[in-house]
Design brief:
Number of strands: 2
Strand content: under 5%
Order of helices and strands: HHEEHHHHHHH
Number of helices: 9
Helix content: 55-70%
Largest sheet: 2 strands, antiparallel
Oligomer: single chain
Distance between the termini: 25 Å
Shape: globular
């Protein structure tokens, strides 16, 4: 899909725009253990912690509010899932799955915990004890092999997370290219899932 989309872009919005790739290799030196450890702490550990504080924590608060505030004896989260359900069914998902992908925009790691929380009607993000419990929960909520494949396809081809979008904006200094980087995989993912689901329904496979 990367090659296909690249070919399409080069024939359309990128037509005539020269591209180049330069890779500069630094001189090789003996690794310094102390510097490696320090850089790992600052470049990796602190970055992840900072992302958790700046992105995941507010996202968790929003999810908690949606799951715990009710309107007409039903949580806001359930209202959203029901609203999105008709469109989600067209691409082989359901309203809960699509809502989880949307709410997982700040951090893709929370998509499945949101799905579990919504199916169990719990007010907080959680995980099940083992895969057998997860399997029973998904089947009880209408998952089939087709659903699982669509979830995998959409996971591979949907909008990048917020951190990636911010990085694209920072590197390109362009809101236009950030929006394109968001829209292209999203449209591709929706198109692929819709095509797959249509074929599955046509041949009567579940």
């Amino acid at each position: 899909m990367t090659f296909t989309v690249s070919k399409i872009l080069s024939k359309t919005i990128l037509k005539g725009i020269p591209s180049s790739f330069a890779l500069e290799l630094p001189p090789y030196r003996r690794p310094q253990i102390g510097k490696v450890i320090v850089r790992s702490i600052f470049d990796r550990t602190l970055f992840v912690l900072g992302r958790a504080i700046a992105v995941a924590a507010p996202a968790g608060l929003v999810i908690w509010i949606l799951a715990n505030i009710t309107i007409n004896d039903m949580s806001i989260l359930n209202h959203i899932t029901q609203f999105l359900n008709p469109f989600a069914k067209l691409i082989g998902l359901d309203g809960v799955i699509l809502t989880a992908f949307i709410l997982g925009f700040p951090a893709n790691e929370i998509v499945f915990p949101i799905i579990i929380m919504a199916y169990l009607s719990q007010g907080s993000i959680l995980e099940l004890a083992n895969l057998y419990e997860l399997k029973d929960l998904l089947i009880a909520n209408g998952w089939t092999l087709s659903t699982a494949i669509c979830v995998m396809l959409f996971s591979l081809m949907h909008w990048p997370c917020s951190t990636t979008c911010l990085t694209i904006k920072k590197e390109t200094q362009s809101l236009k290219w950030t929006l394109i980087s968001f829209a292209v995989p999203t449209i591709t993912g929706i198109g692929i899932c819709f095509t797959f689901t249509s074929i599955v329904r046509l041949i009567g496979f579940r």
